[in-house]
Amino acid sequence: MKKIVALFVALILTLSLITAAFADAQARTLDEIKESGKLVIGVFSDKKPFGYVDEFGEYQGYDVYFARRLAEDLGVALELVSVDAPNRVEYLTSAKVDIILANFTVTPERAEVVDFALPYMKVALGVVSPDAALITSVEDLRGKTLIVSKGTTAETWFTANEPEVNLLKFDTYTETFNALLDGRGDALSTDNTEVLAWAIENPGFTVGVETLGSLDTIAPAVQKGNDTVLAYIDDEIVKLAEEQFFHADYDATLKDVYGDAVDPDNLVVEGGVIE
Length: 275
What we know:
Layout: H1 2-23, H2 30-36, E1 38-43, E2 46-47, E3 51-53, E4 59-60, H3 62-74, E5 77-82, H4 88-93, E6 99-100, H5 108-111, E7 114-116, E8 121-130, E9 145-149, H6 153-161, E10 166-170, H7 173-181, E11 187-191, H8 192-201, E12 205-218, E13 221-223, H9 227-240, H10 245-253, H11 255-258
């Protein structure tokens, strides 16, 4: 019995230490990042054209373009870490990355657990579906199956506002779009910028609902209380407005995808100022 009790106590202590280790995972300050010579940023690897891995195994996209500039201006090397929508917050709270640049929509709930920098993009929700059974309104979705990614604003909005819509949820964007291609759902919802780009590259599908919910913003995020890194990002966003950096980012990473379908000024935010 004493051995069992001792083992139980040891197990409790071990679990406590593990929990404490995760709870005490402190983000690196800006000085610590500079000293290490490396900035670690979490990005998507499967959300083209914002963050994805190309045929040569290289990260590309609108978010990645900005990530490279942040590291360059800080004078350090850049390490990109692949994240999925559901684990973006956890990668910050556990200090696995210094910054999240993964098409992260600012919401009050997320702002309680992470700190958002100034925005660099505007976004709303959109819905894409097959041309043969085009969804053109939320009412069309009631009683049908909508594909969403876990941890996204689409999941949150439909859960709160449209209980009659059946949600089919996946962990990654690749899984969600494959499910739509396979006919496992009637439509798919995520950021309108993403569904517009995807529909252009996939004939037979159309974004029948181009704007849904409120107009939101996309912004970098850091661990709660990491003021030095947050200040660096904000300063960069303000300074980069002088050269219209995010319009250049759009031209380099999004223009070929959207063509004339999107006005850059409806998406791009310069200097953190919403117009």
